[in-house]
Specification:
Mean pLDDT: 83
CATH topology of the largest domain: Rossmann fold
Radius of gyration: 21 Å
CATH architecture of the largest domain: 3-Layer(aba) Sandwich
Number of domains: 2
Largest sheet: 7 strands, mixed
CATH superfamily of the largest domain: Vaccinia Virus protein VP39
Distance between the termini: 81 Å
Order of helices and strands: HEHEHEHEHEEEHEHEHEEHHEHEE
Low-confidence stretches: 1-7, 48-62
């Protein structure tokens, strides 16, 4: 055996780069960066963001009022042009998201690897649902439920307005029903599906065509002991044969429009359809193209620049 075989291999040196991206849908952009394997995680920055920045520099939040901050490691110190080229390719492929590159720069403070955890706190996403990361200890007060979500697949989960609005409507409707069936379309990390199960829905089905999202959701189900309470599938909604008492979809509004017929057709007579991911500036346009003449908006909620709706079929339908 030659000496080279016995020699300890030195770890490959890697350099860290800080990337700031401006976007009005930061949760969706964070998910894109992770699914594309550009980054392992990303910090969402928006108007609702509170807490320290990943690197402890208050200038981060000040310079980026709405978007995503991520830290990536590469084996070369001059990888900035390579990173910008990768971001350009992602931009061309992400036709539903508008975003711009604000900063790509070398970053020598390695404390970001652990200090990002300081940013993720316990969040009340609705009257009865509280979400927190696995390293925090938290309990539910009377009548409330807790969920543990690992933010590794989409940092900021539970903090964005669209998630809170959808969960608030879901919480209200579940309080008025006894064990209703729930379909979560575009379930992502599984927050809404898990909340439904914890609040008494049965059965609960979560759909997502992204296998990485489903993998994240399965991990979260296991962390919360809900593997038997929520079914996950990559089945297209059009191929699901059942109808449900409550259908919820927290997706960007152009996709909601694309799925209009499938979403409406999967609501049980007398059921409800919860729609979130609608920017206020597009709300009138969305309602005009989505809501049929024999359906009615029963509730609207708004927060920041976002809106969510519950629509119900007319009694004569």
């Amino acid at each position: 055996m030659c000496a080279a075989d016995n020699a300890e291999q030195k770890p490959v040196k890697r350099w860290t780069f800080k990337v700031e991206l401006r976007c009005e849908q930061p949760d969706a952009l964070a998910d894109l960066l992770i699914r594309s394997e550009f980054a392992e995680g990303a910090q969402v920055i928006d108007d609702a963001t509170n807490g320290p920045s990943i690197d402890g520099d208050s200038q981060v939040a000040a310079s980026l009022d709405c978007g995503v901050v991520t830290y990536v490691e590469r084996p070369r110190p001059d990888a900035e042009l390579e990173l910008r080229a990768q971001l350009d390719e992602l931009q061309e492929a992400s036709t539903e998201l508008e975003w711009s590159v604000q900063t790509v720069e070398r970053f020598d403070d390695t404390s970001w690897k652990t200090r990002w955890k300081e940013f993720f706190e316990i969040v009340e996403v609705s009257d009865r649902v509280t979400v927190g990361p696995p390293w925090e200890s938290f309990d539910a007060s009377g009548g409330e439920v807790t969920l543990v979500l690992n933010p590794g697949m989409a940092f900021g989960v539970g903090t964005h307005e669209t998630t809170r609005l959808a969960c608030q409507l879901l919480d209200r409707h579940l309080a008025d029903a006894s064990a209703p069936s729930v379909l979560d379309v575009g379930c992502g990390t599984g927050l809404l599906a898990m909340a439904a199960a914890r609040l008494g829905a049965d059965p609960v089905l979560g759909l997502d065509i992204d296998e990485d999202a489903l993998s994240s959701a399965r991990s979260n189900l296991e962390a919360n002991g809900l593997e038997r309470d929520v079914t996950l599938a990559s089945t297209p909604i059009g191929d699901v044969p059942d109808t449900f008492d409550i259908v919820v979809a927290n997706i960007l509004w152009p996709t909601l429009v694309d799925l209009k017929d499938e979403l409406l057709n999967h609501v049980e007579p007398g059921g409800r359809l919860i729609l979130s991911g609608i920017q206020l500036e597009h709300l009138d346009e969305f309602e005009g193209v989505f809501i049929p003449a024999d359906w009615t908006v029963s509730e609207r909620l708004t927060e920041g620049e976002w809106a969510a709706l519950t629509i119900v079929p007319d009694a004569r339908r």
